[in-house]
Amino acid sequence: MLGTNTKSISLNHLGIKNAKIRYQLTSNELHDETIQKGQGTVSSLGAIVVNTGKFTGRSPLDRFIVKDAATKDEVWWSNINLPFEEEKFDKLYQKVVSYLSEKELFVRECYACADEKYKLSIRVINEYPWSNMFVYNMFLRPTEEELHDFSPEWTVISAPGFMADANQDSTRQHNFAILNFTKRIALIGGTGYTGEIKKGIFSALNFILPVYKNTLPMHCSANVGKDGDTAIFFGLSGTGKTTLSTDPNRSLIGDDEHGWTSENTIFNFEGGCYAKVINLSQENEPEIYAAIKKGAILENVVLNDNGVIDFSDISITENTRVSYPLYHIDNIQNPSIGKNPKNIFFLTADAFGVLPPISKLTPAQAAYHFISGYTAKVAGTETGVTEPVPSFSACFGAPFMPLHPTRYADMLSKKMKDAGVNVWLVNTGWSGGKYGIGKRMPLKYTRAMITAVLNGTLSDYKYENFRIHSVFGVAQPRTCPGVPTELLSPRTTWNDDKAYYETAFALANAFRKNFK
User: Fold this and answer.
1) Global model pTM greater than 0.70
2) Active-site residue numbers?
3) CB within 8 A of 26, min separation 6: which ones?
């Protein structure tokens, strides 16, 4: 780990005057700064624990894109991509940099995109040391040599303590995350949730890569086998993206954000992982559990008086998280690049319990499920949710996709066809009934199904080995090594055929309605 960098920099060109700049501090130094400032505590595992304040998750309705010459004809303006006027941005920006002037600030140079051809240089300016430590964990870390002539293409300014005035500043409320593609600035204020920093750059790359670099950006995890075959796991939060890609028998490329190039390689955007830790256990997720040590940051978890974490305690939020650098995982691909993509998994946590635990998709079905991006919200995840609710997020990442979903779906369809990949729909959700009646699919069985795909046991479609689901039309295997046969057919796990089909048709209609 590099010592404290002695290079001095100025932020005057950004309008930030007379700041005390703490530049490129090490992870250990930022850990210590956080403790000294009373902004965090140390858990019994050695990882620092912080509370992100009012916001314990992203706030999609407060995410904006500046509408200007660069974006007005490219961005899919919608209730996801909200426009923000250039003039209003400039005024709000001046307020933020004035607020940050004369403060102690933590500044870090970093990269996104592990493939040298696509690397994006970024400067991040943070009000809090633990936010800067998050940046150290999550982005790619430059060498001492790379720092000498580092020239940032993008700037991220994160000011959690700055509160906007909605009436004056044209925000919805006091918090905001705004992307300006012309000025190459991500401006974040009023929220301490670090995911806004990570997803701000992800959103920027979801515009830059397809528009200018002919590369498909993906909200997915990826790993590579000993024979060099790459597997890709798409999925929304809580579906198992991080857990299932972190496999002791395969090298992890990354857990959340990747690009698929025209050269048919897969590269990680990031240098770390940001995993959900609700109900985490050493037994079920040993690699992630072992990554929680000094250098990791736990967000919004609850400790007892001895610093022991209660991973089941959701009194602050269900969205408890840990960030850690990739090198906290033993089995990683270095650099974070894979070739030869062979299998794609679409992960969904079906709270209705009607989708098969694994099924093979045709290319047309794969495009349909990609643009649908289905999972389900369960009771307790949002205010007012008391029954399972279908949730659709185009491309398994709509909140981060500035272009129309069909732009990404067309790119994926072509790449799937050209690479000859197999595509699988994996239900990590409920079996034997909907949420509240059935049970969550055991992780060991989901792992066994994915392993069977990756080692070739399930790869070849033969009619006698699969049956076509009568409602969803997908091909579900009749048998799978290591999995009880009755679990492979969702209908047989229910005790009531009528209730099963009523629920399945209701979900099928939700798909149709969403697709319109």
Assistant:
1) yes
2) 58, 199, 219, 237, 241-242, 256, 321
3) 1, 2, 3, 4, 136
